[in-house]
Amino acid sequence: QKQRVAIARAMATNPKVLLCDEATSALDPTTTQSILSLLKNINSRLGITIVIITHEMNVIEKICNRVAIIDSSRIAECGLVEDVFTNPKTAAARKFVYPNAESRSVKIGRHCLRIVFNGNSSDEPVLANMILACRAPVNILHADTKDLNGRAFGQMVVQLPEEQELARKMVNYIRARGLTAEEVDNYVG
């Protein structure tokens, strides 16, 4: 109840910005969800900007539109949650998005592609359609999805055929559908 009282006290001043510092730390999952729902409701109904300071990835995934990753008192990376979480550009962001990456990184062979599915394309069978269109199989090495603010985002690492022209055709197929596709030599499994 302390969090609810603190939020109510802060709201009594009719703020334009509400600062929440670790508002869900040390809470059970049900209470955490309740606090996040309350904050989301305040934001949508009253139009108040909410700045959330947290170390909990699931808080950001559930409620935030934008994220700033802070490393050594400096903003290392900031942007839309889906952009930072699906394509982290800095080491600090990668460490936050993939906290166990070093221990779970797997070295893979040639012709491997990391495909990022955004919230708009996650319901389409893009990979299956690519296999049918190109008439060649791929090997799925890794896949995961996240629910970011009610939209599905994901990534998949696939091994393409060794034949250069066929692999290039598959990469072009993926990119033509507006998906991010990058060659990789390892992945977080």
Layout: helices, strands, pairs:
Blueprint: H1 2-11, E1 17-21, H2 29-46, E2 49-53, H3 57-63, E3 66-71, E4 74-80, H4 81-86, H5 91-97, H6 101-104, E5 105-107, E6 112-117, H7 126-134, E7 139-148, E8 151-159, H8 164-176, E9 180-183, E10 186-188
Parallel strand pairs: 1-2
Antiparallel strand pairs: 3-4, 5-10, 6-8, 6-9, 7-8
Helix pairs in contact: 7-8
Strand order of the largest sheet: 7-8-6-9
Helix content range: 25-40%
- Specify Rg, calculated over alpha carbons: 20 Å
In whole angstroms, how far apart are the ends?
A: 39 Å
Number of helices: 8
**CATH topology annotation of the largest domain:** Rossmann fold
Strand percentage lies at: 25-35%
Q: Which CATH architecture of the largest domain would you pick?
A: 3-Layer(aba) Sandwich
How would you sum up this structure, described in words?
The protein is of the alpha+beta class and 189 residues long. The protein has two domains: 2-97, Rossmann fold; 106-188, ACT domain (Alpha-Beta Plaits), CATH 3.30.70. Helix content is 39%, strand content 31%. It has eight helices and ten strands. It has helices at residues 2-11, 29-46, 57-63, 81-86, 91-97, 101-104, 126-134, 164-176, and strands spanning 17-21, 49-53, 66-71, 74-80, 105-107, 112-117, 139-148, 151-159, 180-183, 186-188. The strands form four sheets. The chain has a four-stranded antiparallel sheet with strand order 7-8-6-9. It has a two-stranded parallel sheet with strand order 1-2. β3 (66-71) and β4 (74-80) form a beta hairpin. The chain is elongated. The protein starts with a helix and ends with a strand.
